[in-house]
Amino acid sequence: MGYNYAVMRAPAIGILLAIFVAGYQGKVQQTQPNNDQNARQYSPAKAVAPVSNFAPAEHKQSTYQKAKDYLGKAFGPESIPNWALVVAAGIGLFATFRTLRIIRKQTDAIVRDADATQEAARATQASVELQKVGMEQWVDTEKWETDYLFTQDGTEILPIYFRIKNPTKFKIILHKAILWINGRHISSVWFRKQLLAPDGYTGAAIKYPLNAGQVAAYRRETLKFEVGGVIYFVDAFGKCQEQPFGYTCGCRSPDKSVFEPISFVPPSDAGNKEERKET
Description:
single chain; 279 residues; alpha+beta; Immunoglobulin-like; 2 domains; 4-stranded antiparallel sheet; 29% strand; rod-shaped
């Protein structure tokens, strides 16, 4: 914090003046006893006046004369050093109060600047949060469909296809998707950090093994089941995100499969947790 040179010069002048006056007063006090001693040495012998029974009236000092003598001493030459000290002290006090007032103004300015800086920081943070909201990213799953059954290792397999779409205006990086059918882990699809452009999409497939009863329901009636999963991706801010999805399927034939979205909570058992871990 800088100080005004003129403000600092006033106390210095007052201090120098006080030192000078104190030195002068000491010199006067030192020479005064010598003058009194010399006066006593060279003064003539006082004549002894005859004692009178009645004191003259002119020897009585009136109250007015006492006040006049007091004022004469108070403002006389011998009081000049004292008055100089008073003036010097007044100058010092004035300069001190002025300096304190300047310091207070500077402190208030610093506090105002600090408050303004904090307010600007809060506004910047709010702006960043708004930008994040505007840049919030997610993925959609769409185009769900089934295909004809096929046999693999003696088991009938129902193929299920869907798309993962990036509906936002910023790119994302797909990592993997883990899927469950009727609460049982059925597949993990790895995308190997695939870049998904804005409004872009990529395909995914599930192979659902069916037992004999499910095969009969699929061919003659309606096969119903729930499919859900979690998609792992990295957003434009480099933050890893997880997005769950779920559907109910009423499947009878490839051209009559209907998928309806539902809320889905991934299973919490230890085996499925292990399947969901990032690698």
